[in-house]
Amino acid sequence: MEATALTSPDRLWSAQEVLTRPSSVPAVAGVYGWYFEQPPHPDLDARCLLYVGIAPRYMANRTSTQNLRKRVRYHYRGNAAGSTLRLTLGCLLGLELRRVGSGKRMTFGKVGEATLSQWMADNARVCWLEQEEPWALETQLISRLDLPLNLDQNGHNAFHSRLKELRAQARQRARELPISA
């Protein structure tokens, strides 16, 4: 497996480095890995690979416009509706998930998303590996590594059921609250 760039990276990139223009992140297909200076939950380790993601995802019927640069930048500054990593981190950090817009999308609201972006700027570090078909490597990584923040394909992970339950509880509370402006 050629994942050393993710499991033992030469360097990790901060939000500031990723979000500056021109960005250091290449606009190509690949796999990215997330490390955290302070873990988002007391049962998780600091400075360990906790999550991997891919860009683009596999789509049999159309071509994705996603690439490493777009996805990594979005995770650092987007919202929980478009980033499962942000959804997971916000839930672990105890931010309040809310329905927004028409009520179908869920985010942490303007203040919560800003809080999460700041937490990520302070704690989240990322690395990546260019990969033409990243979904194949993602499957291998999830099956072989301890990646507690990944849910998809990761039912074997010891943290999986707790994370799944935390996210389900956050969604249920959000459904009980009025739609946020």
TrEMBL record:
It comes from the Bacteria. Residues 47-168 form the GIY-YIG catalytic domain. The lineage of its organism: Bacteria, Bacillati, Actinomycetota, Actinomycetes, Kitasatosporales. This is GIY-YIG catalytic domain-containing protein. InterPro entries: GIY_YIG_cat.
